[in-house]
Amino acid sequence: MRDASPQTTYLKDYTVPDYLIHKVALHFVLDEERTEVTARLTLSRNPASLSMSAALVLAGENLTLQRIILNDGEELVAADYVQAADSLTIYNVPQQQPFVLTIENTINPKINTALEGLYLSNGMLCTQCEAEGFRKITYFLDRPDVMATFTTTLVGDKSRYPVLLSNGNKIAHGELEANRHWVTWEDPFTKPCYLFALVAGQLECIEDHFTTQSGRDISLQIFVEPQDVDKCAHAMQSLQNAMRWDEEVYGCEYDLDLYMIVAVSHFNMGAMENKGLNVFNTKFVLARPDTATDSDYEHIEGVIAHEYFHNWTGNRITCRDWFQLSLKEGFTVFRDQEFTGDRTSKAVKRIEDVTMLRTRQFAEDAGPLAHPIRPEAYIEINNFYTVTIYEKGAEVVRMLHTLLGAERFRKGSDLYFARHDGQAVTCEDFVKAMEAANGVGLVQFRRWYSQAGTPVLTVSRRYDSQAQTLTLSISQECPPTPGQAVKEPLHIPVKVGLIYPDGTIAPCQLQGSADSAEEVILALTEAAQDFVFTGLSSEPAVSVLRGFSAPVKLVMERSLTELAFLLSHDSDTFNRWEAGQQLIGQAITGLIADVQNNRELRLDPIIIEAFRQVLAQPWEDLSYFSLLLSLPSETYLAEQMPVIDVVAIHTAREFVKLTLAEQLQNALQTLYLNNHRDESGCFDAGAIGRRRIKNTCLNYLCALDDPALKNWAHQQFKTAKNMTDQMAALTVMVNNPHYARRQCLAEFYQQWQHEALVIDKWFALQAASPAPDTFATVQALMAHPAFDLGTPNRIRALIGAFSQANPLHFHAANGQGYQFLADQIIALNTLNPQVASRMISALTSWRRYDAGRQALMTAQLERIMSTEAISKDVYEIASKSLA
Ligand code: LYS
User: Fold this and answer.
1) Ligand 1 within 6 A of 272 CB?
2) Do the Cβ atoms of 147 and 191 come closer than 8 Å?
3) pLDDT tens profile 755-765
4) Distance (Å, rounded) from C-alpha 116 to C-alpha 127?
């Protein structure tokens, strides 16, 4: 084990930089194993710095320093500077301001398996600098509050690197001897170095344009490897949609004349918003109807939009320090969620986002890694690109939007852009702009930024028939999280609607107020508060937390009958779906107890009746209809249990699925047949909805041991004209006993072996299967020629899917799943620390399991902790998981 634990960085220690860098001229001579970097930096002392020390400390890692030159004069000698593993300290820099420092160093992209800094992806050179990757390119003040203009010259072999890209506009290019050429790029906007990018390789480009609201013509280019040019149309369309939407909704127009996106197959995350040159994981660019599912199409549009939206929320206005990460990510996620909601179905998008929040973020917030959306300390910032920073951060922005309303929120964002354009700012600056633009105070609301944990709202009600009033008593409580034993009450918007027993809307009129509306937003600010509604002629049903108006857990006693009533009558699409989920969730919870106590299983007829009613109604939004028919996931159900019992959850849920399939077989079959078409390349909401409802039915029907229905799946697999249908069919064949399972898996591989993203699906599907032989399959797949520990997408597909999407087998009682995962994390620790540390998450929640599993999981975490040369990334997550 390492003797000194890695250093922690604290928000409270923030100080302004001692030096500023105004201008950066970079010169690269590209080579796979020895790239030469020359950085000419124009610096000056920061007048705002209080430090008296004259030394200039630059960050740098894995760099081979060649020489340092001051003010274009003499080379510095050894006595002038000190080099450490992660820094370069230069003494006695000139008093005259500004001054110029030229640093020459070399780097080796080929051995850079961490995929941070400059690295190789299928022979192409590319960069990833956020958060602290620029220091792996050259020595620099690698912090977001140092903003400079960049000019970049790339020199490379014409055959290997015909395309040479960097940020901004191409200002010059030319030929050199020995089959080489060069290009110079200039980015006129100041930016922190984490937004720097370069790409060099044999790439093909598809091109289009966009005319902005002020009439400027922007050239749009998407660069991919040659075999993928036929999979870019959707990404291009998505970009244009995002550009239009940002103008319409936020008044934000694009600023450069050129917008480039490059898709690379080796990428640690989803995508990166480098100024004018986004670098994307291929997964979020490439799509053709036969290779990508409907949900892939939606994710591509969402991620393209996310990175595009960053141009204002992230690039023009960036973060002062990495503790403010949610300033750009939370806001940008909120923006992309709203965009997708507008483009597809608002109801469905909200439900999907909340589902993800409640399964993943709530789990994070309840575990040893819980942190506020503005954390106070980190060891490795890459570990803080979390669902809390992103998704809970988006919920906090959404609450501001809910509290202020769309118009006033827009006034706030306008002021934020006007005040801070070109600056590196804080979450506090964002809240202040919202306050100032609207003349409101958000003092208590700020606690959302500093407090971790998921608040629990407990709601009870009392109807007084004489007074015709309904009193809602709401209390809030937030469990302790690491480092935060006591929590203060938060400002929570609780959206409420009332429904009379005949299904009509009851007026919401709060005591003492003259306004009456169909719904109200209650401002819960105290630990416990009563809200009295007046003028109610009979007792209404209460629809609380409409649209999931705050990221909280709701505790409210409700009978199955009341839930069934809300499922048919709630006018809020989110709560209507939620009532159904609560209904079925309560039933499954009861069945889980029955499984644990060896009692006979029986599904309450009220559930079957509720589903029958849903099936009997006409639905316009078929995707929403599908969600109403879907069961809560095993992961969601696990979240609701005091001690997670993966076997009982799986057994109970499968029982419910089977029973519903048996009881509703005719209706499900009809629905399947009515929506089964041979549609290819059709991506309107209607076609997407038809596929979704049809495949939901297929999933139920294939739980039945009926050869005719199993054949439906087989036929669908064989005749599918799009990946959604093909994948859905293969999934039910892999997840249920099926005569053609092996054969279809083999055929699928044969058919798609040259499409990496489709093969990822093939790996993930098998790794997530509840079939009894899954663990053996996963082990065998590790040895498959197409498996590769150097490709993050493949790791996520196999190891990630098994550990995060297969609770039943990952948590096998004998601990084999845990040991397997720890083996992979240890292997990845040196290869790719970022990916390794993300894989630990499956072990982090060990306290949620029984004593036997707890012991097995912690033993593996201890084993990970004793890894030789453990990375900061892995150390932080493993040690905090155990703490
Ligand atoms: N800023 C990127 C995004 O759009 C992610 C960068 C990840 C850096 N480790 O989410």
Assistant:
1) yes
2) yes
3) 999 999 999 99
4) 7
Return mean pLDDT, the chain: 97
Ligand 1 lined by 391 (C-beta under 6 Å): no
**Is any atom of ligand 1 closer than 6 Å to the C-beta of 336?**
no
- Alpha carbons 689 and 622: distance in angstroms, whole number: 4
Indicate the Cα dihedral angle 339, 344, 349, 350, nearest 10°: 70
237-278 per-position pLDDT tens digit? 999 999 999 999 999 999 999 999 999 999 999 999 999 999
User: pLDDT tens-digit profile of 791-811?
Assistant: 999 999 999 999 999 999 999
Whether 116 is catalytic is no
What pTM was estimated for this model as a whole?
Answer: 0.98
Distance 269 CA to ligand 1 centre (A): 7
The answer to whether the CB of 533 is under 6 A from ligand 1 is no
State which amino acid sits at residue 457: L
Q: Which residues of the chain are in CATH 2.60.40.1840 domains?
A: 456-550
Residues of the chain with CATH 1.25.50.10: 609-641+652-882
Taking residues 333-349, report their average pLDDT.
97
Residue 96 is predicted with a pLDDT of 79
Does 3.40.50.150 match the CATH number of domain 1-202? Answer: no
| The one catalytic residue among 104, 130, 273, 307 | 307
Under the banding of pLDDT at 50, 70 and 90, the label for residue 4 is low
Tell me, what DSSP letter sits at residue 361?
I
CATH number of the domain at 609-641+652-882, out of 1.10.357.10, 1.25.50.10, 3.40.190.170, 3.30.300.30?
Answer: 1.25.50.10
Query: Which CATH fold topology does 317-449 show?
Result: Neutral Protease; domain 2 (1.10.390)
From the CA of 328, give the closest atom in ligand 1. Answer: 1
CA–centroid distance, 45 to ligand 1, in Å, is 30
- DSSP character for 446? G
Largest CA distance in the chain: 95
Gyration radius of the chain's alpha carbons: 28
Looking at the chain, the domain(s) classified CATH 1.10.390.10 span: 317-449
Contact 39 CB / ligand 1 (< 6 Å): no
For the question of an ipTM over 0.95, the answer is yes
Half-sphere exposure of 440 (CA within 13 A, CB side): 18
Atom of ligand 1 nearest to the CA of 268: 9
CATH code that applies to domain 456-550 = 2.60.40.1840
Span(s) in the chain for CATH 2.60.40.1730:
1-202
Atom of ligand 1 nearest to the CA of 116: 9
Token pair 């393209």 in the structure block, residue: 304
In this predicted structure, the answer to whether residue 1 has a pLDDT above a threshold of 80 is no
